[in-house]
Each structure stands twice: as structure tokens, then as C-alpha cells.
Specification:
By secondary structure, the protein is mainly alpha-helical. The protein contains 5 helices and 2 strands. Helix 1 packs antiparallel against helix 3 and helix 3 packs across helix 5. The termini are far apart.
Length: about 100
């Protein structure tokens, strides 16, 4: 079960329930995926509504790996989600909110 106080969320991917969390290592992974942009720049990009399918794959994949799972981004790209594209965006938004809640 996900613990929101630790920034964890629960998400159903490919018909199975998983816990996702953006640990410090997962956040560094995301920064590296965006050419070294800091987390504030990345968060601002997402807040502006500019998110691509590849962004969702990177964030969801980092969240799965942050919880100790060994999904590759290619494997993440093949997981279905209820609600289609909106479902993926909901997971990304929920994970980012759980990670950065209470920060300026």
C-alpha cells in the first residue's frame, strides 16, 4: 500500500497494481533524461501542460524503478492504463504532486 507521506502513489498499469515513488535516484534519472535540467525547470514544463508520451514513460518508469522494480522504459511503454492517454497523465500528475507536495 502506498504511503503518501513518503511520496508514494498506487497505480494500475497493465492490469496490475504497483507502488511508484520518485526517490532521489529516480529524480536524478529524470534530470539526466532531460539533459541535466533541474527539477524546478522540469516541473515548470509539466505544469505548463507541455507533456509528451515520452515524458510520461520516463516519469512512470522512474517511479516504478524508485520503488525497486526493474521495468525498462520500453516495458513501461507497453503497459496499458485505464482511461488511455488521460490515465497516463493522471498517474504522472499524481506522482509529481505526491513528490513535491508542500514545496514552494
Amino acid at each position: 500500500m502506498a504511503n503518501r507521506h513518503r511520496g508514494e502513489i498506487e497505480a494500475e498499469l497493465g492490469g496490475q497494481s504497483y507502488t511508484l515513488v520518485l526517490t532521489l535516484g529516480a529524480l536524478a534519472e529524470i534530470e539526466n533524461a532531460y539533459g541535466g535540467d533541474d527539477m524546478i525547470a522540469i516541473a515548470e514544463r509539466f505544469e505548463s501542460g507541455r507533456i509528451k508520451a515520452s515524458d510520461a514513460i520516463k516519469v512512470i518508469g522512474a517511479g516504478l524503478r524508485g520503488s525497486g522494480l526493474t521495468f525498462t522504459d520500453d516495458e513501461v511503454s507497453k503497459l496499458s492504463v485505464a482511461g488511455g492517454a488521460a490515465g497516463y497523465l493522471r498517474i504522472v500528475a499524481e506522482l509529481l504532486k505526491a513528490t513535491f507536495a508542500g514545496t514552494p
